[in-house]
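Sample intake sheet
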Amino acid sequence: MTDRVTSAAETLLRGPSAPLAILGGRPLLSNRGVPLDLDRVRQVRVNTSAVERRAQSHVARRTVKKDWQAAWLLRAITCMDLTTLSGDDTDERVRRLCAKATQPIEHELVKRLGIEDLKIRVAAVCVYHRFVEIARRALEGSSVRVAAVSTGFPAGLSPLSERIAEIRRSVEAGAQEIDVVITRAHVFGGRWQELYDEIAAFKQASAPAHMKVILGAGDLLTLRNVARASFVAMMAGADFIKTSTGKEPTNATLPVGFVMARAIREYAQETGMAVGFKAAGGIRSAKQSTEWLALMKEELGLYWMKAELFRFGASGLLNDIERQLEHYATGRYSADYRHPIA
């Protein structure tokens, strides 16, 4: 069993190599942004009924099983931004989260699965600015990156100068990735130039860190708004577009995922540049993680099944994935408390 899952996991985790991505046989570059094309943004249309039917059919299909299911779950772990964004966060909680990030699977289970050589790690730890330096020190020497939520997270309503200053402080403290929040009112009012200028300013302030632009899709009311905001964010230089803060009443949903993934595909076809995707909020089960990975594979291809171009914003997801892996290895489900996050 361990040889089979190791082989499947190695195949999936190795995946395609450089360049960054290929779409339709065409190598893609990292996103540098393009001038705002208002006509292109205004032409965006979304057939909501068709998208919802596509999402329903997606979850109704047969999923991956047995060895390949275990391999896909291991891939999901490597695409996680392990996150703590609570009002009662402490230094010690962040340190424990970082320890979990560098060893996300219990050691005995790693041995049972025979995957010691794969060195499974999450992609990043995501925290408030206050904890960036603590996370950086805790993760020093590992491959796990430090991500900070900035720009007045989660509402994004503080003055623009303060949001830009917060980004710069997080980068100076050691954040390698910055998750920024857009002003949703720009979307409601169709003020695309203002939205573009805001995100472009965030991009300039976040260099050299990677910038993930949080759309707050659950607040944007329509899928067309989600698609238009996606295009503007990519034109302004987003390295990733992200569904949600995780604080909205509705967060990452598959219809939103399909709309954003297809916007990424169209942008890549038009510009030759690749933008990543992050699904955040409400993804708590191992089955959901494979559904999102399948969405990436079907809509964008194998390159978007790697941490360089796909992330989960997750806190409770890792717990269920560990339980499913233990069931695969032993035939029994363990209690939740055996796989604490922090």
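Comment: The domain at 15-64+124-320 is CATH 3.20.20.70 (TIM Barrel). Residues 41 and 228 are 6 Å apart (CA to CA).
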